């Protein structure tokens, strides 16, 4: 469907979804670069990075977990935003909150990587709660829209 046929709300939601999907891609590129540097300069073998098992420095492991956290949520965000866009949902929440979800995810990832301190954990939780609240709001509006 050509973009000029989409409502502004659908275009906004799809743009936010693309940004949300690009974020784990950027984190993955950073993670791959970090691993490459460790292999080249620290003489780490390619097998030194087992999935699901803590390895590397604390900051490296937090980075690894931040990437896994965002990747496992892309499908949820995609389902809600794609159904909203395809169904013609056009509300303030659908035009605005997808960007709130994306921004909160970036904050959550950066807090995750920055520190394991209590304040960083509170920031992560607040950002996560913001995402859940915003997606919940959109989902409720979407269910109402589809039900009517």
Walk me through the topology.
Blueprint: H1 8-41, H2 58-71, H3 74-87, H4 92-114, H5 118-147
Helix pairs in contact: 1-2, 1-3, 1-4, 2-4, 3-5, 4-5
- Helix and strand content put the structural class at mainly alpha
Order of helices and strands: HHHHH
Largest sheet: none
CATH class: Mainly Alpha
Strand content: under 5%
How far is the N terminus from the C terminus? 24 Å
By CATH, the architecture is named Up-down Bundle
Measured as a percent range, the helix fraction is over 70%
- Can you tell me the number of structural domains? 1
Inertia-based shape: elongated
Query: Stretches where pLDDT falls below 50 for ≥5 residues?
Result: none
Assembly context of the chains: single chain
CATH homologous superfamily annotation: Membrane associated eicosanoid/glutathione metabolism-like domain
The radius of gyration is 18 Å
Instruction: Please provide the count of β strands.
Output: 0
Task: Walk me through the structure.
The structure is a single chain. The protein is an all-alpha fold and 148 residues long. The chain has one domain (8-147): Up-down Bundle (Four Helix Bundle (Hemerythrin (Met), subunit A)), CATH 1.20.120.550. It is 78% helix and 0% strand. Helix 1 (8-41) packs antiparallel against helix 3, helix 1 packs parallel to helix 4 and helix 3 packs parallel to helix 5. The model has no long low-confidence stretch (mean pLDDT 92).
């Amino acid at each position: 469907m050509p973009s000029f046929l989409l409502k502004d709300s659908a275009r906004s939601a799809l743009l936010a979804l693309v940004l949300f999907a690009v974020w784990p891609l950027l984190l993955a590129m950073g993670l791959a670069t970090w691993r490459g540097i460790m292999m080249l300069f620290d003489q780490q073998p390619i097998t030194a990075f087992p999935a699901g098992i803590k390895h590397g420095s604390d900051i490296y492991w937090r980075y690894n977990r931040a990437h896994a956290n965002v990747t496992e949520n892309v499908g949820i965000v995609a389902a809600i935003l794609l159904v909203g866009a395809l169904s013609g949902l056009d509300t303030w929440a659908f035009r605005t909150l997808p960007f709130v979800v994306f921004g909160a995810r970036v904050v959550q990832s950066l807090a995750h990587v920055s520190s394991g301190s209590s304040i960083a954990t509170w920031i992560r939780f607040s950002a996560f709660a913001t995402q859940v609240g915003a997606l919940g709001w959109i989902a409720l509006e979407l269910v109402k829209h589809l039900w009517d």
